[in-house]
Amino acid sequence: MKKVKIALLGLGNVGRGVYIILHQNKEEIMKRSGYEIEISKILVRDLNKNRGVEVPEDILTTDFEEILNDDSIKLVVEVMGGIEPAREYMLRAMEAKKHIVTANKMLLATEGDEVFEKAEEMGVMFQYEASVAGGIPIINGINENLTANKVNELYGIVNGTTNYILSKMELEQLDFDSVLQEAKEKGYAEADPTSDIEGYDAQYKLAILASLAFGTKVDINDVYREGITKIKPIDMKYASDFGMSIKLLAIAKDDNGRIELRVHPTMIPETHPLANVYDSFNAIFINGNAVGDLMFYGRGAGDLPTGSAVVSDIISILRKNIEVENQNPIIRNNLWEKQVKNIDEVESRYYIRVTVEDKPGVLGQITTIFGSNRVSLKSVIQKGRKNDESHEVALVLITHKTKEALINDSIEKLYDLRTVKDIENIIRIEDFN
Amino acid sequence: MKKVKIALLGLGNVGRGVYIILHQNKEEIMKRSGYEIEISKILVRDLNKNRGVEVPEDILTTDFEEILNDDSIKLVVEVMGGIEPAREYMLRAMEAKKHIVTANKMLLATEGDEVFEKAEEMGVMFQYEASVAGGIPIINGINENLTANKVNELYGIVNGTTNYILSKMELEQLDFDSVLQEAKEKGYAEADPTSDIEGYDAQYKLAILASLAFGTKVDINDVYREGITKIKPIDMKYASDFGMSIKLLAIAKDDNGRIELRVHPTMIPETHPLANVYDSFNAIFINGNAVGDLMFYGRGAGDLPTGSAVVSDIISILRKNIEVENQNPIIRNNLWEKQVKNIDEVESRYYIRVTVEDKPGVLGQITTIFGSNRVSLKSVIQKGRKNDESHEVALVLITHKTKEALINDSIEKLYDLRTVKDIENIIRIEDFN
Ligand SMILES: NC(=O)c1ccc[n+]([C@@H]2O[C@H](COP(=O)([O-])OP(=O)(O)OC[C@H]3O[C@@H](n4cnc5c(N)ncnc54)[C@H](OP(=O)(O)O)[C@@H]3O)[C@@H](O)[C@H]2O)c1
Ligand SMILES: NC(=O)c1ccc[n+]([C@@H]2O[C@H](COP(=O)([O-])OP(=O)(O)OC[C@H]3O[C@@H](n4cnc5c(N)ncnc54)[C@H](OP(=O)(O)O)[C@@H]3O)[C@@H](O)[C@H]2O)c1
Questions:
Q1: CATH number 3.30.360.10 given to B138-300
Q2: Of A289, A415, B229, B256, which one's alpha carbon is 20 to 30 angstroms from that of B167?
Q3: What transmembrane ranges does the database entry give (chains A, B) (predicted)?
C-alpha cells in the first residue's frame, strides 16, 4: 500500500470530522484511494484545548512553517476558516507544490479567483466540495455531472440554521425570537447568529454556486440579500392558507445571459420538493436545459457530513496521480461574462401584508395605487380586525408577476395614504415556472 | 480548439437526446470540455426511419465495422441497449483503444465485470452514469463523492413508470389497470410493461447501485423482486389512513458485511422525502456513516435527461487526457466480499390485509397464530363488511418489526383457518431507522 502524508489547518468542527472519518473509515479509504493516509501535522491556535478527539500531542502545531517546509506533506486540508491567514497559507502551500482541499466558503466567495489561479499556475489540484452545503456533493455535481447543460435556474436552501428556525416556526407556530433562542441553546445557531439569520452565509454560498453553474465570475456584492428576522407567525399562517411554505432561498437565474442573484425569504408551493426540506437539512434544486429538474438534499453542516465532503475530495486527489502536475479540472468561472440584474429588474409575484384603517374606501385606494403602477393583484384578502379598539384591519395582497421596481413604487405611494397604518411585510413568491 | 470524433451506437430515445444536446449546447460543451465534438458515425438498424432529428444521411450506418476500423474515432457512445450485440461491440471498441460511454443497465447488471475488466486491461476510460436513474448523477455521486463513507443503506425510486402509476393511484384514487392503460397511451409505459411493473428494471438498477455503494460484486439473481400489480386502491387508502405512501423501492442495506437486496412495493411514512417523489420522477436516498442522510432527485428517463448524463460522461472523458492510457478511476465492485441475506432473513414491519368471516372468535384465532410465531402485532383494524351478504370483513394487521420467515410461516397457518377467506395483500413497511 502506498503511503501519503497530509496536514490539516484547523481542528475545529470540520477538522474533527475529517480526523474521525480518516480513522474510522480507514479501510474503506485505503481501498478506494489506493493510499494509506497519515495526518502528520495539524495546525491550531491553542495546543491545550479539548477537541473531543484524542490526537497524539506531537502532531499538533501552532507553526504553519513546520507544515510548509515539510516536503513529505503532499496535501493540505484548510479547515480553519476566515480570510486571513487561510488565504496566505493556501497560496504558500500551493507554491510549495502541495495539493489543497478546503471548506472555506468565505474565502472562495470573495478571493476565489486568486486561489484558483494559483492552483492553475502551480499545477496542483484544488478541491472545495465542502464549502457549500456540507455533505451534499453539489459542487462536483455542477462541475462534473451537469456539464452537458445550460443551467437555467438554481434554488438553494443552503443555510441549516435558518431552515431549522423557519421549519419550527411553520410546524409549531412559534415566533422567530423564541425559536432562535432555542436554536442557540441546542447549538443549531451560533451565539452571534447574524451571518446565518441575515443571509450572509447563504450569500457566500450562492456566489460560489452561481459562479460555477453559469461559468462566470460573481461579485459577492452583486448578490441581493435579505434575512429572515421579519417573518412573523402570522405570515407563516397566511402562507399555509395559500398552500405555501416560507423558506430562505438562494436564487440564481440565467435569463439569456443576464443573471439574477438573490437571497431572501420566499413563499413556495408546499407541493414543491424544496418545501419539504425541513429541520437543518439543505437542498439545492437546479433546472438545466437538458437534465430538467434535479435536486440534491442532505446535511449542509456538522462535523461528519462536512468531513465526508472533505475526505471524498482528498480521495479524489489521491486517485489521480499526485506526482504529476496539471491534473486540475478546467476552472469554469471565467467562461462567460454575464451581466447581473439589479433587484429592481427582478420579476416575481409578491405577498404584501398591510395594516389599514377599517374604513370604507380603503381597499379602493390601495387597488388604485397598484393599478396605476400596472401591478395586477391576484387577490386581496381582508383578515379581520387587529383588535377591537384600534379600528385597524390586516390586508393581505397577492400580486401577479411584476417587476420589483413597480412594487417598490407602489409601496412608497401606499405609505403616503393616511389610511395605511403600516406595511408589515413583503415576501416574494416563487412559482418555479 | 481541439477536435475529437465520436460515434454513437443507436439513435433511439437516448441517442436522439445525445444528438440534440451535442448540437444545442455546443458552445457550453466546447468551453467545458476543451473540444469541438464531431459525431462522425451513428450505428442504426434502419437507415430510413424517421428519428425526430435531422441527421446528415452519410453519418448513419448499419455496419459497426465502419466505426470500429476508423482510428480517428476516439470515443464510442453505446445507446442501443440489450446484451448482444452491445456487449460484443463495446468489447471490440475497447480493444481498438476507444473510450466508452454507455447507458446500458441490463448489460452492466449482468455482464458488467467483463466490460469493466476489459476497460482496465485496455487502459481506456469507461463511463456509465446514464445506466441508472437517467439524468440523476447517482453513479458518480457514489463513485466519486461518497468515497469517505461506509454506505449503510440505499433506497431508490428508480423506475419512473411505476412511480407514475403509484402516484396516480394515490393522488386520484384510481385502480392499477386504468392507470396503466393511461400511462401506455401517454407513452409513460411501454406496450409490454412487464419489465417496469414487475420490478425487473429496478432490479437491474439496484444491482448496479448496490455493487458500487458496497464495493462488492452483486449477482442480479440475489436481488429479491416483487412488482406493483397487486396494489389496490384500498391499500393506498389504508396506507394513507396510517400516514403512509406506497412506493416501489429498491432497497440495499449493509448489516455488518451481510447485505440485503430487494425490490418491492413499500409503505413509507408520508413525511419521508421519498414519499414526496411523485409522477415519473426518480430519487435515491442514501445513508452513509459520515454524510448521514442524502437524497438525489430528478428525471430518471427521457431523451434529454438521459442524454445529459451521457454527454456529461463524454465531457468528463475529454477533460482527462484522451491520448494517455490508464486514466480509469479504480473499479470498486470487487473491494469486499459480502454475503447476501435471503429474503427470509430480512426484518421489516408488515401490513397484512385479509378477508375473514364475520364471526366471533376469528380475531382471536388470528392473533394466536401470530403470537405463537413470535410476531407481535402493532394494530389490528377491522374495516367493516365487504358486502352485506357475504358476511365477510376486511382486517388490516400491522406488525412490529419481525423476520420475514416468521411472517411467511404465520401466513401459511392463516390459510389453514377456515374463517380466513383470503390473504389479500402483504406489503412491507419501512421506517428508515
Ligand atoms: N462547521 C460546519 O458545519 C461547516 C460546514 C461547511 C463548511 N465549513 C467551513 O469549514 C471551515 C472550518 O469551520 P469550523 O466550523 O470547523 O470552524 P471552527 O470550529 O471555528 O474551527 C477552526 C479551527 O481552525 C483553527 N484556527 C483558526 N484560525 C487559526 C489560526 N490563525 N492559526 C491556527 N489555527 C487556526 C482553530 O484553532 P483552535 O481550535 O486552536 O482555536 C480551530 O481548530 C470554515 O471555513 C467554515 O466555513 C464549516
Ligand atoms: N429511454 C430512456 O429514457 C433510458 C434511460 C436510461 C437508460 N436507457 C438505456 O439506454 C439504452 C438505449 O435506450 P433507448 O430508449 O434509447 O432505446 P431505443 O429507443 O430502443 O433505441 C435503440 C437504438 O439502437 C439501435 N439498435 C438496436 N439494436 C441495434 C443493432 N443490433 N444494430 C444497430 N442498431 C441497433 C436502434 O436502431 P433503429 O432505430 O434503427 O431500430 C435504435 O436507434 C438502453 O440500454 C436503455 O436501457 C434508456
A1: yes
A2: A289
A3: none
